[in-house]
Amino acid sequence: MLKEKTVSGIAVPMLTPFNENGEVDLHSCKKIIDNFIEKNVHPFLLGTTGEGPSISNNERKKLIDYVGKNYAGKTKIYVSVGSNCVKENIENAKIYSDLGADFIVVLLPGYYQLTTNQIMKYFETLAENSPRPILLYNIPQTTHHSIPLDVVEKLSHHPNIVGLKDSERDIERFDKAIEMFKDRKDFSHMVGWGAKSFYSLSKGSDGLVPSTGNFAPGMFKEMYDSVRRGDLKNAERLQLETDELAKVYQKDRTLGQSLAAAKIIMKFFDLCEPHMLFPLTRLTDEEEKIIIKNIEQLKERIRIY
Ligand code: ELE
Questions:
Q1: Ligand 1 in reach of 210 Cβ (< 6 A)
Q2: For a pocket test of ligand 1, which of 79, 139, 201 has the largest count of ligand atoms closer than 8 A to its C-beta?
Q3: In this structure, is residue 3 part of a structural domain?
Q4: What is the 3-state secondary structure (H, E, C) of the chain?
């Protein structure tokens, strides 16, 4: 039986809000997810942007339980698994599915160098054991492995594998993958590279996973809708504007520092406090002030929504 295409649109890799004790702050989760739902985008929990790998198992379950209980059926809930222990990933895929996840987004274990066959077998094992469909998550920046596209192609025919979320910053790879999957009715290409959102959508990608969507979800939804209806000019304008927003927290920062900076912007929009989970830490007061100043200035020129 042919799978149907189930993954498209905008899934925002949600920054996880914490209180000062490092516990997940559910009150802020509500504000963030209500805003997503208002803008018609979906939450993607426990990803790279969400400090997923730093969060304890109990806190992860608390978050998914809350989101499942309050939002299942109202939005599509994506949740990442990505420990180096395969057994734990299988268990978590089951637990998260029971708690309300619609899709399990699977990272590669990054500790040992894996062969192509091991990568293949790993994803097949997860797909066979996950009660919910899985997406392959390619992010060599953190897992130190790139999932080869011919492996993705083979896996794409598995009945429980519905898409690729690609965050590898390699434009040739993007071109090849989009060409490979754009006409497939049963497998999705999701873009984990904010700066290439418009480019990829206009070539045939199915959707976006942009970190800037945490505080500007409506702008990405409008970009997506604009491409779908052929208004490329408007979509391109939104790309340029969201690029400017991304620069405020990403330019000249490590990935971890950029997440701390993004939380300052979240605070500016009253969406959450800027607490980070150790080993990531907050920025200095001086840096925080500069970010606020920059975002205030941008807000004069760009409608952020
Ligand atoms: C993506 C990229 C987002 C996000 C996750 C994600 O957090 O798990 O360019 O910042 O939008 O991997 O990191 O890229 P930008 O999937």
A1: yes
A2: 139
A3: no
A4: CCCCCCCCEEEEECCCCECCCCCECHHHHHHHHHHHHHCCCEEEECCCCCCHHHCCHHHHHHHHHHHHHHHECCECCEEEECCCCHHHHHHHHHHHHHHCCCEEEECCCCCCCCCHHHHHHHHHHHHHHCCCCEEEEECHHHHCCCCCHHHHHHHCCCCCEEEEEECCCCHHHHHHHHHHHCCCCCCEEEECCHHHHHHHHHHCCCEECCHHHHCCHHHHHHHHHHHHCCCHHHHHHHHHHHHHHHHHHHCCCCHHHHHHHHHHHHHHCCCCCCCCCCCCCCCCHHHHHHHHHHHHHHHHHCCCC
- Convert the pLDDT of each residue in 22-39 to its tens digit: 999 999 999 999 999 999
- What CATH number is attached to the domain comprising 145? 3.20.20.70
The answer to the question of residue 96 being in a domain is: yes
Q: Give tens-digit pLDDT for 102-155.
A: 999 999 999 999 999 999 999 999 999 999 999 999 999 999 999 999 999 999
What is the domain range of residue 80? 9-232
| Residues 168-215 pLDDT 10s | 999 999 999 999 999 999 999 999 999 999 999 999 999 999 999 999
Find the 228 Cα to ligand 1 centroid distance in Å: 22
Pocket test for ligand 1, best of 32, 103, 104, 193 (most atoms within 8 A of CB): 193
